[in-house]
TrEMBL record:
Family the entry assigns: Belongs to the DEAD box helicase family. DDX6/DHH1 subfamily.
Cellular component GO terms held in the UniProt record: cytoplasm
Function statement: ATP-dependent RNA helicase involved in mRNA turnover, and more specifically in mRNA decapping.
Residues annotated as domain Helicase ATP-binding: 1-102
Domain Helicase C-terminal: 112-227
Matches recorded under InterPro entries: DEAD/DEAH_box_helicase_dom, Helicase_ATP-bd, Helicase_C-like, P-loop_NTPase, RNA-helicase_DEAD-box_CS
UniProt-recorded name of the protein: DEAD-box ATP-dependent RNA helicase 8
Length: 227
């Protein structure tokens, strides 16, 4: 079963009264269910961490470490990540016993991706973006901002300029986010403004332009945004 924040907790509790062999979810929601005693993890022999670098960010790591207390001592932990920041290494050293490390690439590169930057002042950004829209051949674009407030403000500006635009961020209800993503993927809109919520596991073939309206805070985030 799948369980995430922003969805019905009651429905998840009802589903857990039936046998569940595989649980996919966000750390906070699974921890909540475990604390309520409805998600029994004492016999869970495997924990898989997809996008481990993100799960070990300050936003998720406390919940994840609490969640480990509900698993048996002999659990197996599998970690998958395109980047290997110090947080992943620290977690590996603390919680994994004699781990195997499988590296499928010597380095994460941006081969095949053409990159440009525009050196402009903050007040010139929207004008620069408008120029890019008029000059580039855009099938669909994803535009990243560093905060929820800036996402909504920029989406409003783009709409006022006459371009179709959706936005998505973590403070929206899950059902609303799902609907926006589905509509964007199906081509209902050309431009999507978002936070880093939208950097991972997203594969939309029609997207041929990614714009960092706000520059990311670290190189790992930049790689996840543009790859």
């Amino acid at each position: 079963m799948v369980t995430t924040g922003g969805t019905s907790l009651k429905d998840d509790i009802m589903r857990l009264y039936q046998p569940v062999h595989l649980l996919v979810g966000t750390p906070g929601r699974i921890l909540d269910l475990a604390k309520k005693g409805v998600c029994i993890l004492k016999n869970c022999s495997m924990l898989i961490m997809d996008e481990a670098d993100k799960l070990l960010s300050p936003e998720f790591q406390p919940s994840l470490e609490q969640l480990l207390c509900f698993l048996p001592p002999n659990r197996q932990i599998l970690m998958f990540s395109a980047t290997f920041p110090v947080t992943v290494k620290d977690f590996k050293d603390r919680y994994l016993k004699k781990p195997y490390i499988i590296n499928l690439m010597d380095e994460l590169t941006l081969k095949g991706i053409t990159q440009y930057y525009a050196f402009v002042e903050e007040r010139q950004k929207v004008h620069c973006l408008n120029t890019l829209f008029s000059k580039l051949q855009i099938n669909q674009s994803i535009i990243f901002c560093n905060s929820v407030n800036r996402v909504e403000l920029l989406a409003k500006k783009i709409t006022e300029l006459g371009y179709s635009c959706f936005y998505i961020h973590a403070k929206m209800l899950q059902d609303h986010r799902n609907r926006v993503f589905h509509d964007f993927r199906n081509g209902a809109c050309r431009n999507l403004v978002c936070t880093d919520l939208f950097t991972r596991g997203i594969d939309i073939q029609a997207v041929n332009v990614v714009i960092n309206f706000d520059f990311p805070k670290n190189s790992e985030t930049y790689l996840h945004r543009v790859c």
